[in-house]
């Protein structure tokens, strides 16, 4: 069943990883279309995330939390990983580079 329409393949893979932390299997539909971006409308690079109907309610709860975090983090700044010094978006709890937990509360 369709769970979410990600803005692009980067967001789709991020959400897929988030769902996998909760043992929810996600299938991506359309993630390879961004290669042809020059000839297709911008809406076409959006990626559908599909989930088994038995896991839909749990996955929707996680998506709602994700969307709320995005809204709440629009005023927050990027944080620097204390382990590898890479900059991370405020929506990330783990460093994208080394998977270290954010020290920001």
Secondary structure: elements and pairs:
Elements: E1 2-6, H1 9-21, E2 26-29, E3 47-51, H2 56-72, E4 79-80, E5 87-88
Antiparallel strand pairs: 1-3, 2-3, 4-5
Question: How is this structure best described in words?
Answer:
By secondary structure, the protein is of the alpha+beta class. It has 2 domains: 2-72; 77-105. Helix content is 29%, strand content 17%. It has helices spanning 9-21, 56-72; strands at residues 2-6, 26-29, 47-51, 79-80, 87-88. The longest helix has 17 residues, at 56-72.
Provide tags for this entry.
two-stranded antiparallel ribbon, 105 residues, 5 strands, 17% strand, 2 domains
What does the overall shape look like? elongated
Approximately how much beta-strand content do the residues carry? 15-25%
Oligomer: single chain
- Helical element count? 2
Uncertain regions spanning at least 5 consecutive residues: none
Instruction: Count the beta strands.
Output: 5
> Can you give the mean pLDDT?
83
Number of domains: 2
What pattern of helices and strands is seen along the backbone?
EHEEHEE
Major sheet strand order:
1-3-2
Radius of gyration: 15 Å
Q: How can the largest sheet be summarized?
A: 3 strands, antiparallel
Strand pairing plus helix content: what structural class?
alpha+beta
**Terminal CA distance:** 35 Å
Helix share bin: 25-40%
């Amino acid at each position: 069943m369709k769970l979410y329409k990600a803005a692009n393949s980067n967001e789709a893979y991020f959400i897929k990883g988030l769902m996998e932390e909760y043992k929810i299997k996600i299938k991506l539909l359309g993630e390879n279309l961004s290669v042809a971006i020059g000839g297709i409308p911008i809406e076409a690079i959006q990626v559908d995330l599909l989930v088994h109907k038995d896991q839909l309610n749990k996955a929707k709860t996680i998506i709602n939390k994700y969307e709320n975090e995005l809204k709440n983090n629009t005023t927050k700044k990027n944080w620097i990983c204390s382990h590898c010094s890479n900059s991370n978006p405020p929506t990330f709890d783990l460093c994208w580079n080394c998977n270290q937990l954010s020290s920001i509360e």
